[in-house]
User: Fold this.
Amino acid sequence: MHYDVIVVGVGGMGSATVYHLARLGSRVLGLEQFDIPHDQGSSHGINRIIRLAYAEHPDYVPLLRRAYELWREIEYEAGERLLFITGGIDAGARTGEVVTGSLHSCQVHNIPHELMDASSLGRRFPGYRLPDDMVAVYQPDGGFVLSERSIVAHVTAAQALGATVRGRERVLEWAVDGDGVDVLTDRGRYRAGKLVVTAGPWTAKIVPALSSLLVPERQVLIWTQPLRPERFRLGAFPVFMLEAPEGLFYGLPVYGIPGFKLGKYHHRRERVDPSHVDRDIHPEDEEVLREALVRYFPDANGPTLTLTTCLFTNTPDGHFLIDAHPEFPQVCIAAGFSGHGFKFASVVGEIMAELALEGSTRWDIGLFRLNRLLG
Ligand SMILES: Cc1cc2nc3c(=O)[nH]c(=O)nc-3n(C[C@H](O)[C@H](O)[C@H](O)COP(=O)(O)OP(=O)(O)OC[C@H]3O[C@@H](n4cnc5c(N)ncnc54)[C@H](O)[C@@H]3O)c2cc1C
Assistant:
């Protein structure tokens, strides 16, 4: 069975890649080890924050603008809303990385925004109760993307264009042979001209040379019953990133399942093997999250509704890894999304399709090249 491109991993990035490859007319096969979608990787848990004022680096902003466009396109294809605009808050100390980084991106890219003190923020969005030594950048384009539904939308649209997607089929090994790539799974053998690896936390198992650069990490998320529900509903509460002395937190208004959703970046800093993750929730997991609820969102600090685990894949500098394989140019990799990748999935799909088919992309991916990590 011969394809133009095989995509290993049909999660957030892989589903979008399969779709964009099919859109460009190539014969594509997507292989996924679990169900589509599933709750073992990095893309489950209803939704993911999207922000335009990008504190991490201004170079992400052009990609974000394209990502917003492509989210609108795929939701039109799917006939289903996937992108919700709530406004976004980047908060913390005036001199902290989140506030200065967010303001820097706004200035470089002329992004509309407002800088507010903690009391103005609390008056406008009463769910927030930040101390006086914090400020907030409000950016009206912030919001969230429905993550599992986006995977469904990309896969369904790709299939309508002729793509083949197989679930419950694990890639065991691959080898470059002549001008193509052979792929062996637990169900069969396939051949393609190009291979794209979008295997999330399992990427280093497929490309062992990257194992020191792609580190999977256990995360835990909580949904709580707000004590003042009107303050945390869609329309009343912007998504946020909050740099506090206790760590970096993020949260979203109530949507999809009951409760206010909150997480802490890097949670308890637990490196894990993605195939053997502790999926149980322990009292310490909840304590880490309750700390932020008590201090900064007391009106959301009601009973626990849901707790779940999820996986980050961290690179040493927190920027993505998007590049060709160091030895085999017919193999491309998109991984290491370091806890902030989902919002980009729509544009990463386009980038990976271009890299696989043309060997280059119109988008500036200089920040994501492998060389920077190899020194
Ligand atoms: C708790 C949490 C909160 C987050 N919040 C945000 C946020 O608010 N905003 C944001 O932008 N990002 C956020 N992120 C990050 C974002 O969700 C991830 O960057 C993104 O989901 C990564 O997508 P992926 O395609 O790389 O991984 P995945 O979606 O996990 O996809 C990888 C797929 O590859 C499959 N696979 C692996 N190995 C094989 C194999 N051998 N054979 C076949 N299939 C294989 C896996 O089963 C999986 O389906 C968050 C992540 C977590 C965990």
In short: Residues 60-78 form the longest helix (19 residues). The two ends are 39 Å apart (CA to CA).
